[in-house]
Amino acid sequence: xxxxxxxxxxxxxxxxxxxxxxxxxxxxxxxxxxxxxxxxxxxxxxxxxxxxxxxxxxxxxxxxxxxxxxxxxxxxxxxxxxxxxxxxxxxxxxxxxxxxxxxxxxxxxxxxxxxxxxxxxxxxxxxxxxxxxxxxxxxxxxxxxxxxxxxxxxxxxxxxxxxxxxxxxxxxxxxxxxxxxxxxxxxxxxxxxxxxxxxxxxxxxxxxxxxxxxxxxxxxxxxxxxxxxxxxxxxxxxxxxxx
Length: 243
What we know:
Layout: E1 2-6, H1 10-22, E2 26-31, H2 34-43, E3 48-52, H3 61-71, E4 75-80, H4 85-92, E5 98-101, H5 106-119, E6 120-121, H6 129-138, E7 140-145, E8 148-153, E9 157-163, E10 166-171, E11 175-178, H7 182-187, E12 194-198, E13 201-204, E14 208-212, E15 217-220, E16 225-227, H8 230-240
Parallel strand pairs: 1-2, 1-3, 3-4, 4-5, 6-11
Antiparallel strand pairs: 7-8, 9-10, 9-13, 10-11, 12-13, 14-15, 15-16
């Protein structure tokens, strides 16, 4: 896993870098402000951000993380000395994996990063035709997490959205970042339940709660909204009319 550290305090930054490397991950770089962080991600998008909220410059850590996420899917662990609700609420909007308060200890950081590795997964494993048929019959998608295969029941996948080299798989309880193009992932999902609603979005019809025709959005169970592109709208409406 590739990790970008954004921390303006040199002692914290060097300590985090050492912890990341000790856990066997790759440090993309250490940035002390938003400009440096954004410059690094233009060359390569990290899998995970260790993001200090209180950094100098035009953007704080929350704003910087938001701009990085606009460039591509990236998991976040926020780090801060602030304990106020406003800071927590602002950071929570981006769906971070964890929220570490300074001063933190090595165990807290290690566990937070280990938790991230269960969310950021590799592409679905290649299998023989016989194995694939068995998995399809069982209704599961298997993805690689390190040296293990993680099972994701297809019936729990609510939607998928793609950005660059990643797909985000949303289930009823989790979100997974998968290194796989959307078309390849769509080919592995059953057509009778999953359909394209936008060039970068798939939805599972089972979880469609309503369609906002004015804003061209699909509202899924739980309130998540997915765009409905003009070119996909007619086919989607025809399909759900059969439900």
